[in-house]
Every structure is written in structure tokens, then in C-alpha cells.
Write a structure and sequence with these properties.
The structure holds two protein chains of two kinds.
Chain A: H1 16-19, E1 43-50, H2 53-68, E2 72-78, H3 84-95, E3 101-107, H4 112-119, E4 123-128, H5 137-147, E5 154-158, E6 175-181, H6 188-191, H7 193-197, E7 201-205, H8 217-227, E8 232-235, H9 244-256, H10 265-270
Chain B: H1 3-17, E1 23-31, H2 38-49, E2 58-64, E3 66-70, E4 76-79, E5 93-97, E6 101-108
Helix pairs in contact in B: 1-2
The chains are: A alpha/beta, B alpha+beta.
Chain lengths: ~270, ~110
């Protein structure tokens, strides 16, 4: 709609501003006396820019960089205490002999998780976000250059423990995985729908504790379905090993496109059984 | 609080797109289903603009209502929340509108 008069679009195929130049008498009073100096007048600039446009651009750059090196990058997101680092340690120990795995660790403070991951035998770069509550594409880009993961390798990005903010920031990852645990509420998917909606795979961790809890797995899955009808849900225990072969099969299958060198699912899963 | 990043994103984009002049006002669109809280953006905006050409600028937020389409019955309906059930029973709607996070205009002196 035209901002000058409220009419719609162009008039007579002409540019709209011109058609309004002299189509009404100028009979109103100019009651003010200051000079009309256009250079000092406020002007309105049409921007029409995405607020997250810069992050999106950098994320696409990361994605291209990763694809060019056939690296499958998994963005792991969860609330604090879901067992993300424990799951990662276990995964590194089980898969480390089969595939080259490296890790980018995001935390607000400390290098504790990076040390745990290094202890499990993987190359790792720690990003401390300070007051930041999520990783963004620029941080990942810098970390990728520092880590320089091998061609055809598997890369885990452990995002800051937070179910809100990371959902909004594309990093350029190949897949998003959300980890929830049985010690949290079954209603987490409903409380944090943005996060669960954006996930391709949801790992329900700590299923070994189910006998001691009132957590209802079916109810949790039903809540996931309300926000995300297509995500896969796997029940796992990072400590006891339940469901891990399935997780490894998913990694192998999903990463196969990016990494033809990944071993067949059955070979990989054979290493993970307890 | 990701709204801090959102505010910083607004300031960076405006500074880049409008190379000179004092910025008096910025108009942004925030969709109801975007996961971003307009009040929190306003709160962060003042802090992010300090010391920039946007200092003292007004932030006008245009709320964009959520709208979705049901994959089962094809009905279109307003979405107050991300989790909205269609009257036909389908709990999951395709989002047509409401995820906007966009800078529309900038008023420059």
C-alpha cells in the first residue's frame, strides 16, 4: 500500500510518487517559518533484512566447509544434567576405533568437559561462551578452523546446556539431536517446543533408572509427537549401554551421505554391546 | 537469553546497512511463533545500542500473528502457540506465518 495516500500500488503504470505530484490544490497554510532543508530531515530506509541473516550466512558457509570435507557434524543439545557428556564419552570409546571422531565443546565456563572428552581419546576444542547461552555459527566457524577435523570424520558439537536459545541458531550442522533424560519431566517437549521441533533425533537417556522413577516413556513420546511428528526417539542409557547400537546405526546411516568411508552399521554396532 | 543476540543482530545489521547518520528508530517484525520475546529484545536493545549510532533510538516492534495449516483437513487457522491442535484432532500444524525475525525500516536523521 502506498504510504502517500493509502491507495494500492502503481497508477496508470507510472511510478506512484509521480502520479501524486500535483493532483490536489495546495490551499493549506504553511504556518511555520523554518527553512526546509532536506539534508537534516529524517529519512526512512527500507531494510527488509533478516535479523539472524548474518548467522544464517555463516552457518551456510560452515555447512559448505563441512560438506566439502565430507564431515558429518551433529549438533547435540539438551538441558544441563541430561548426560550429554557421558553419552559422548561412551560414544567416543565405542566408535573411536572405527571412525575418526572429534568434538567441539560449548560451555559458559571451564574446560572440564573438554578434559573428559580428551580423556575418551578424541581431539577437542572448547568454546567458552562466557555470558552467552548458546553457540552461534561464527563461534563454530572459528572452532572448525582451530580443530581442523579430518576428511570424512565425524564431528560432535556439544552445545551449551540449554533447551531454549540454541534452538534458534543454525550452526551449519548436518543434523540436530536433542538429548532428554528420564530424570526430567515428561512434559519437556511441550515446555520447549522450539528445541524439540527442530530435532531430527531425540535420545531419551538414563533409561536404566526407570525402575526407580515414575517417568512414563509413552507419555514422553506422545508429547514429542505433538511438536514433532517425524523425529525418531531412541531410548538409551549411556552408562549401561541400552539402545546405543541403534544410536550408532543412526550415526552411520545418517552420516553415510557425508562420509562414504563410514563402516557399515552392523560392524559399528558390534563394538557397542555391553 | 538469546534476545541479547537478537538485539545485537539488529544493531549490527543496521550499522552495516546504514553507514552514516544518527538512527532515530528501528522497526522490526517479531513473529509470535519465533521463540523470541519482544519485551526481552526491548530490554536488551538499550544496552546493545549504547555507544553506537543507534543510542537513544526507538525500537518499534510489529507483532506478527501465527498462522498454520493442518495437513489432514487442509484448514488454515491462527496459532497462538507453537503447539496448536486443529479442531479435526491433528496436533501438528505446518507453520505458514509467525516465525518472522525481520528488520523492516530504519529512520535516520
Amino acid at each position: 500500500m502506498c504510504a502517500t495516500c493509502g491507495c494500492s500500488g502503481t497508477v496508470g503504470g507510472e511510478s506512484h510518487a509521480r502520479s501524486h505530484d500535483h493532483d490536489h490544490p495546495h490551499d493549506h497554510e504553511h504556518g511555520h517559518s523554518h527553512p526546509h532543508d532536506d539534508s537534516t530531515a529524517a529519512r526512512t530506509v527500507q531494510l527488509e533484512k533478516e535479523i539472524l541473516g548474518k548467522n544464517q550466512l555463516l552457518a551456510e558457509r560452515n555447512r559448505g566447509w563441512l560438506e566439502g570435507r565430507q564431515i558429518f557434524a551433529v549438533n547435540l543439545m539438551s538441558s544441563p544434567g541430561s548426560g550429554k557428556t557421558t553419552l559422548l564419552e561412551r560414544t567416543l570409546r565405542d566408535l573411536g576405533k572405527e571412525v575418526v571422531v572429534s568434538v567441539i565443546e560449548g560451555d559458559q565456563e571451564t574446560r572440564l568437559d573438554a578434559e573428559r572428552i580428551r580423556g575418551a581419546g578424541a581431539r577437542v576444542v572448547q568454546i567458552n561462551t562466557g555470558t552467552g547461552c548458546h553457540l552461534d555459527a561464527q563461534m563454530l566457524g572459528r572452532a572448525l578452523h582451530e580443530l581442523s577435523p579430518a576428511m570424512g570424520s565425524l564431528l560432535f558439537v556439544e552445545n551449551v546446556g540449554n533447551l531454549v536459545c540454541p534452538a534458534l541458531f543454525d550452526l551449519g550442522e548436518g543434523a540436530r539431536v536433542v538429548i532428554a533424560s528420564t530424570t526430567e519431566g515428561e512434559d519437556k517437549p511441550l515446555k520447549y517446543p522450539h528445541m524439540f521441533r527442530s530435532a531430527e533425533l531425540i535420545l531419551l537417556n538414563k533409561v536404566d533408572l526407570l525402575p526407580h522413577l515414575t517417568f512414563d516413556v509413552a507419555r514422553f513420546v506422545a508429547h514429542v509427537r505433538l511438536v514433532n511428528p517425524t523425529a525418531r526417539v531412541l531410548e538409551v542409557s549411556a552408562t549401561r549401554g541400552d539402545g546405543l547400537p541403534e544410536w550408532y546405526r543412526w550415526l552411520a546411516a545418517r552420516g553415510a551421505g557425508a562420509r562414504p568411508a563410514v563402516r557399515a552399521a552392523d560392524e559399528v554396532s558390534g563394538t557397542s554391546r555391553v | 537469553m538469546h534476545e541479547l543476540s537478537i538485539s545485537q543482530g539488529i544493531v549490527d545489521s543496521v550499522c552495516e546497512a546504514v553507514p552514516d547518520g544518527q538512527v532515530l528508530a528501528v522497526k522490526v517484525e517479531i513473529g509470535k511463533l519465533s521463540g523470541v520475546v519482544p519485551d526481552a529484545v526491548r530490554f536488551c536493545f538499550d544496552a546493545c545500542t549504547r555507544g553506537t549510532r543507534l543510542e537513544g533510538a526507538r525500537l518499534d516492534v510489529v507483532d506478527v500473528a501465527g498462522r498454520g495449516r493442518c495437513g489432514s483437513c487442509q484448514r488454515e487457522l491462527e496459532m497462538e502457540e507453537l503447539v496448536t491442535r486443529c479442531p479435526c484432532g491433528n496436533p501438528f500444524l505446518e507453520i505458514l506465518r509467525g516465525r518472522e525475525l525481520r528488520i523492516r525500516t530504519v529512520e535516520v536523521a
